[in-house]
Model the fold of this input.
Amino acid sequence: MRDFVNNVLKNQSLTENEINQVVLAVDEICSNMIVHAHNGNEDDTIELNVRNQPEGILFEIVDKGDNLFNLKGYQDPSIHDIIQQGKKGGVGLFLVRKIMDNVEVFNEDSQHIWRLYKKISDAKK
Done:
């Protein structure tokens, strides 16, 4: 998945650092789906679609897992508290929201769909 996203982004007007950040964001959402909605079941699948937009790129991650994440109820964690407590994890969605320009999650036709949008100057059409 990471190689696929990296290859898609190589043809866009992004720096290497920006490419790595977007790969991280998409990977984080996919990983969370696998762990939380599919309990790590290797036989389950998720779908990753990419669409070029007039001013950016849209990643759509679709699955039929058990748990729909409520993005509206999400509050960014206190990074200070996480560091103080020595917690592992808990900052993935925070990073995704910082990296991407728009993040949406919704339910449609019994599927959970995440849309991650990144603005790109001189986006390929």
